[in-house]
Inverse folding.
């Protein structure tokens, strides 16, 4: 059976040594309820829950075929109900939510680490509370006081859960195309009619009610994305007393049969004149939904870290236990029939790729979490402005770069198992199937790349990244001389020049950005991970124990063995878009 | 439902224009029975079979859960039996086998193309005849005349099928560790006892008999891989008249539950004193098995091409049909609610990555096929020597580089579908699950890389690759000036210098090669595909139609957008093995 132990020591290192969470929290009275001791206690509890409660359910749910659909009802896999109850009772759903509504108000730089453990051990399970929290965020940000009072406490106790209903069969990336209608009733409510697809947790048996956040168009709304409004549509309507009333006209038509995350119910939702309540202003629904989307997008990155950490731990253990062949430098374990495959450089190369990726990814998630905490809690307007820009810039990296690298990592981990990685028993093939969706949902990674290069870069003439690079350079100036310092400084120069080149090209070639977007996203990802290793190295270099000193080796490994990808990315971007765009459309499907 | 149309025009182009198959065949009397008209007729027939018979069975087999095990019996998915019969009746099993034994004696450079179509449409189905053909090759190469007479004709009619039984639970890559015993009987036969795992087609219901080729150790055999012998172990013994007699003591203990290729029965085979017959000399079994292995390894590369071609066709069609967003350069289809996603540079980038990879891969498979044909049929001893060295060098590329690139391609194709790529309906997620095994079985891609850098490179001081580069340079000299010519010449220089560097490093650092093997394999892969595009470009430049002229654009795309990976590979190799090897073994599993 697959193993998992939460990387608590690494998490403590990143929070405490790299990002000095204690100092950060002490400097802001909004964080009076949190310190490193509390943080570690929370992480230790989550480590137990993830290992003892949901890890085994991950395999059993997949083996049993996942969530089941029967005449509009969805049953979650065996054990999910009890686990969800335990999760809710532990106060985990509202861990990062407002205390006013029953949340625990924990900072994001901590919750990203707790989330990682759930993603490591049971991604299907994670999706149930995840969408609930996302819905809570959108309601908290946009809804009326009465709506907040009505819905938020029930969401955070886990009595009710949430969904986000955006996609329709003909409308995914391009939400301007949605057809779902919202017709006003005399009482101020709306009748919602339409079909939504790919709705995570759209129907299930974990809670007594499900609160759908739905994008729809009011009559005479402007065409396209400027005519979209946001609605709350509960599965069960509430009576005057706020108790569950009659069933609303919304139901699941079917669930999808997917490559992975089978324990998560992905539903087709039919709205047949269902009663809904507008959230925020008419025609401003997309912005409201994006409050939730940005949160989900960071979460997808954490899904990547979780999966890659799980993959790493299992691959490293397998590689240690598996005896096959002898070391090139001579027999290492003469008492055994063969040496452990850890003696082989290629196995180590794969494990170090994964490990370096995981440590940088985790640091990056905490870094972005810290920026989000600044936007939410800082009283310094300029600090908030800067952090908002940083979050805007880095959300696509968190979502897309982390999940791209996580899939690479999980695939390398599977390869460490040889043929055993391909059979279900070891859990590696499920890990990959479950992880793959992270690159696709909440805006494909290509959509993230286009967001990064467009709205976040060329639109502001590279201002966001210039400010990010300035921060990195400031940090580099504090470092002692070492290969990581040299490399980080060089990467700053390279990505700065690259951004300048892109901003210039985009001015004269409308199709340039889209064609080079993914290579640019990976370039900024490499910059970000190099920066994370600079910070990791700096913190680790202060301590003598091997746990810390080995991080210096890992940082050097990253610079020597992973960072060379940057040159290839830059070369591709300089090759431009002409070769991509010049072939006629019919070329692609012409009978060959 | 997934679509597939065999790329017959491209196949004809590669055979006829790029490799001048007609001239090649006419120059050798062993090929008197084949010309381009016959070749195209064969490919057209296979195109029909693959599209009309086995394509739909691929999805239905996976949906139904694949092969089923019940008390030692294995049933193949519905429809496989009839399809296999039709395949056998068509003479397809022995398409490339010796006419003396009932084969059709077709050249390898043709059969690789026929095989590709089956890999495209039903990889699980392909595995049944594939192992049969491999077993036939080993028997033809090593067995006695009587053994050949007894087994080969029945294998090529499809009445019987074949397996290769190498792996044991504790012994995969390191076959020196096998424990299966072969005890001699008075009549010259042996009693075989042991457990073999991951045995493709070990048990099934397609044929009346199954001929296992089994590696086992005779009493007092030398330790390790020098003490392994090869045996034929039929499921049903043959009586004096050569007819099926009693059941032999070999049976399937279970089948594996796998990530993909579910229609293929992957069996645990128990040999309980089963009667077997030695093939070739005692203790020379591994060499005998490698006759079969090299054939399978090229086949795995073709599995990659097949899957990536299937993935391309479906992704290109989806991208053409899917309307979402508008072109950056302005609305392209004002009459439609949105433009086709083919207007977006990133979608085109993915499709061109896949298409350039597929065309180079296919050319490469035909090139290696031609080299194999030379080794088998040429009467020029020096040509045979050269071709043998070339096949030795390029088999790891064919197996590992082609399948690595194919997985990249299939993943990009899946991404073109957005969320629709993740659900089973469109067939993309199955394509990936089925393809993934190609990187793992028949020696993982890491094992291929180590074979390339060790036995095929450092052992001969780079002589094989020097001769290959000399051939490429000779070809470059015939080219007109163009970016592909310049790039090909440059890649030759770079890989030559890189090989020299590796040969030198390996002399003083025993663990160097293993640590950089995969990067070297990819470097030689990039050299090979660049060479293929040089040949494709040269042939295409002679014709004016857009079908050919577009190939010039695709070649330029490859050089500009794919080849930059080479610089990253070279940089990683120059970074050496120290950072990989210096951490202690316990580092990898230390609680983090």
């Amino acid at each position: 059976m697959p193993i998992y132990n939460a990387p608590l020591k690494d998490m403590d290192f990143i929070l405490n040594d790299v990002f000095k969470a204690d100092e950060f929290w002490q400097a802001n009275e909004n964080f009076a309820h949190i310190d490193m001791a509390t943080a570690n206690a929370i992480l230790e509890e989550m480590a137990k829950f993830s290992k003892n409660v949901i890890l085994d359910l991950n395999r059993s749910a997949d083996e049993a075929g996942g969530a089941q659909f029967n005449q509009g009802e969805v049953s979650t896999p065996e054990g999910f109900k009890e686990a969800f109850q335990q999760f809710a009772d532990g106060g985990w759903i509202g861990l990062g939510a407002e205390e006013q509504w029953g949340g625990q108000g924990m900072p994001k730089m901590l919750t990203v680490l707790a989330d990682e453990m759930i993603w490591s051990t049971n991604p299907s399970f994670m999706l149930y509370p995840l969408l609930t929290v996302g819905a809570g965020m959108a309601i908290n940000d946009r809804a009326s006081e009465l709506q907040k009072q009505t819905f938020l406490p029930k969401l955070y106790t886990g009595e009710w859960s949430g969904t986000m209903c955006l996609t329709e069969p003909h409308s995914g990336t391009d939400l301007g195309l949605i057809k779902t209608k919202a017709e006003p009733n005399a009482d101020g409510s709306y009748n919602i009619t339409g079909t939504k697809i790919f709705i995570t947790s759209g129907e299930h048996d974990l809670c007594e009610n499900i609160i759908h956040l739905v994008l729809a168009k009011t009559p005479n709304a402007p065409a396209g994305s400027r005519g979209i409004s946001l609605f709350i549509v509960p599965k069960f309507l509430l009576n005057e007393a706020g108790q569950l009333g009659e069933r609303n006209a919304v139901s699941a038509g079917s669930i999808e049969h997917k490559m992975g995350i089978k324990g998560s119910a992905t539903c087709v939702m039919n709205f047949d004149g269902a009663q809904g309540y507008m959230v925020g202003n008419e025609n401003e629904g997309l912005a409201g939904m994006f409050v939730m989307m940005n949160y989900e997008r960071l979460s997808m990155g954490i899904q990547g870290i979780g999966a890659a950490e799980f993959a790493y731990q299992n691959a490293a253990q397998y590689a240690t236990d598996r005896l096959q062949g002898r070391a090139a430098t001579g027999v290492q374990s003469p008492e055994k029939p063969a040496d452990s495959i850890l003696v082989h450089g290629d196995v180590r190369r794969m494990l170090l790729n994964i490990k370096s990726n995981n440590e940088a990814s985790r640091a990056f998630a905490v870094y972005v979490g810290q920026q989000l905490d600044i936007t939410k809690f800082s009283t310094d307007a300029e600090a908030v402005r800067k952090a908002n820009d940083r979050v805007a810039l880095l959300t696509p990296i968190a979502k897309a770069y982390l999940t791209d690298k996580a899939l690479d990592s999980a695939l390398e981990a599977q390869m460490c198992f040889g043929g055993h990685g391909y059979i279900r028993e070891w859990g590696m093939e499920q890990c990959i199937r479950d992880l793959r969706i992270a690159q696709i949902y909440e805006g494909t990674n290509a959509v993230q790349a286009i967001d990064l290069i467009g709205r976040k870069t060329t639109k502001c003439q590279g201002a966001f990244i210039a400010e990010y690079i300035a921060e990195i350079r400031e940090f580099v100036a504090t470092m002692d001389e070492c290969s990581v310092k040299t490399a980080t400084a060089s990467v700053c120069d390279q990505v700065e020049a690259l951004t300048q080149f892109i901003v210039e090209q985009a001015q004269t070639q409308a199709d340039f950005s889209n064609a080079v977007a993914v290579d640019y996203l990976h370039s900024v990802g490499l910059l970000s991970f190099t920066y994370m290793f600079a910070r990791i190295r700096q913190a680790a270099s202060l301590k003598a124990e091997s746990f810390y000193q080995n991080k210096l080796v890992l940082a050097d490994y990253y610079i020597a063995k992973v960072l060379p990808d940057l040159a290839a990315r830059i070369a591709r971007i300089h090759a431009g878009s002409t070769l991509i765009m010049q072939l006629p459309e019919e070329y692609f499907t012409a009978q060959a």
